[in-house]
Amino acid sequence: MDALLTNYKPRLLDFRYSSSGIDKDITFSTLVGLFPHVICIRIGKAYFNWLDDLNGTRKQYRTINIIHDDFDKLFSFKPPDLYDFVKSQPPIFSISLTYRVSVYRYHWIIHMMNKFIDPRFSDAKNGFCKVTLRVELFENIRIYRDHHYYYKN
């Protein structure tokens, strides 16, 4: 059994809806340090400057999915930095940012979220979706609204 665990190299980490929560000191650098083969990360927390930390891992990912209820932490980046990070990743890469809310106020929230999308992205379908912004209700995660963004032609 020890040999099996020693050779175990997870490529997907899914901590989106962990009932035990995620320690506040866990960062993308921490996760990549512990699991160097990971290419897909789904995490139920954001923290200030998470994009800088993720970029600092210097890894190629397939998907990143972040869910959080703190708008300022989830969107603690500059739009050009998100674009540059996405552009540095493989063609199949996508990132999803989910803002969890307790009030059904999609139009205002989507308007606020869109301010963090670089103008070099477009919502006109063009190949593979690169960025998804999602608004999701605390009370029922099946109620959500997605906005997808692609590279411009």
Looking at this protein, list some descriptive labels:
6 helices, 28% helix, 153 residues, alpha/beta, 25% strand, seven-stranded mixed sheet
Topology (elements, then pairings):
Elements: H1 2-7, E1 12-15, H2 28-34, E2 40-43, H3 50-56, E3 63-68, H4 71-74, H5 79-88, E4 94-101, H6 106-114, E5 121-122, E6 131-137, E7 144-151
What does this structure look like?
- The protein has helices at 2-7, 28-34, 50-56, 71-74, 79-88, 106-114; strands spanning 12-15, 40-43, 63-68, 94-101, 121-122, 131-137, 144-151.
- By secondary structure, it is α/β, with parallel strands linked by helices.
- It has one domain.
- It has a seven-stranded mixed beta sheet with strand order 1-2-3-4-6-7-5.
Outline:
Helix content is 28%, strand content 25%. It is an alpha/beta fold.
E-strand count: 7
Using the CA coordinates, give the radius of gyration: 16 Å
Q: Which regions contain 5 or more consecutive residues with pLDDT less than 50?
A: none
Rough shape?
globular
Topology order in helix (H) and strand (E) letters: HEHEHEHHEHEEE
Question: Into how many domains do the coordinates divide?
Answer: 1
Largest sheet: 7 strands, mixed
Mean pLDDT: 88
**What is the overall number of helices?**
6
The helical percent reads 25-40%
Protein name: Sulfotransfer_1 domain-containing protein
